[in-house]
Amino acid sequence: MSKQYLIFLFCGMGLQIMSAQIVFDPGYFIDNSGNRVECFIRYRQSTFTPTDFKYKRTQESAVETGVMDEVEEFGVTNYALYVRKTVLIDTSSQNLTTISDHPEPELQTRTVFLEALVSGLATLYKYVDKQRVFFFFEKTDTGLQQLIFKQYQKTPTALGTNEGYKQQLFEHVYCEQIPLTDITNMRYREKEVKAYFLKYNSCLSDEATDIQSGTHKTQLHLTAREGVSVADMHLIRPNYSIDFLPQLSFRPGFEFALSPPVNKGKWELTAEPIFQYFTSETRTINEGKANYYSLEVPLGIRYYMYLNNGARFFTNINYSIDFPFTSNVEIYSLFYRIRSRPKGLPTNVGIGFDVNQRLQFEFRAGRRKILDNYFVYPPHYRTLSFIVGYRLF
After folding, report:
1. Which residue from 11, 144, 223, 358 could staple onto 255, CB 3.0 to 4.6 Å apart?
2. What is the mean pLDDT, run by run of 10 residues, along the chain of 393 residues?
3. Which residues make beta-bridge pairs with 391?
4. What is the pTM of this model?
5. Which residues make beta-bridge pairs with 27?
């Protein structure tokens, strides 16, 4: 099955890549004349702050590019908002070979897109370049300022840190109902800085808005997955080979999937305990028979490709941990106890289709060695499965 296994893997991935469409989410942009244009924007959770963006005026129209010189602001509904700003930004190198040896920021004027994180009496922005993350805040009485955080070469063997942002927050973004330790213990991390600005705006008014309210959060899902499998076993020896007859079996199981907050929920880490069994005899009478029962736990990574109609294609790669029950293989009247110890990655791969993040259909191929503690050339246990899943939460 090795050739068929590889063909299944690569053809399946190729089919998904060709079939999946790039999704454009509802959004808008404002041009230099102040005109607001409703459109559909291709939103990608990139590592760095964008300098342009791709959009369509309708879902059927051609793709266009919005550039910084022509756009004052653009946003993707419930996901992101970017505003063009001219800022004073620290350009000190953070590369350890060229890092600055003094604590003061080296401010220069630049025009960039800033990503708005929190809006209210104090607005919080983020900017990410190839070296580091910057946070900015804006208020009516202070204007737009960078929250200062800089590492520098304090001594030949030690780094120092300028945490000027804490003093800035105490002077300009502080509410007496907020414990001072919220500032003194704050790290220069998006989660902590963002939480503080939400708390500050809520403290002084009811106008505290999380711009990224629709962004993907870490989620845990449970899916009931039932299906059928066709399995066979093949043993190759230097002077002969033994084939076991294929068997059709039912495979009940559940899948736990952890969806981290990256790339709009396109990645999942999965664990799927399933009961599997294989009882078969060799094609040639009296050569042997197999009784194989086990709890199999494929641990995998899944990647989704979104379509515009609420459906998703997906590919997953799994490494299976196998817990055999009383199982053995008989070959020429000799009994061998099965101790499945899969080697190599992956032990199975799958392609599938997801409807409305609820109903799933998947084809999966698996291959692993068993009895490798008895044979130099151990048998290959191979499966091809069709699985139907229903997401419970």
Report:
1. 223
2. 50 48 82 94 82 90 93 88 95 85 92 93 92 93 94 89 95 92 94 93 77 67 91 74 84 88 79 88 75 86 78 87 78 66 66 88 85 62 90 89
3. 223
4. 0.64
5. 39, 76
Torsion sign over Cα 377, 379, 385, 391: negative
Q: In this structure, what token pair is assigned to residue 21?
A: 């469409």
The residue type at 39: C
Q: How far apart are CA 290 and CA 280, in angstroms?
A: 5
Q: Which residue has the tokens 């899948």?
A: 255
Q: HEC profile for 281-337?
A: EECCCCCEEEEEEEEEEEEEEEEEEECCCCEEEEEEEEEEEEEECCCEEEECCEEEE
CA-wise closest residue to 126 among 147, 95, 103: 147
For 254, the token pair is 């559940």
What does each C-alpha distance from 206 to 173, 198, 201 come to in angstroms?
16, 10, 7
Dihedral (Cα; 332, 333, 334, 335), 10-degree rounding: 120
What is d(CA 187, CA 43) in angstroms, rounded to the nearest whole number?
28
| Residue 133 CB contacts under 8 Å (≥ 6 apart), including other chains | 126, 127, 188, 190
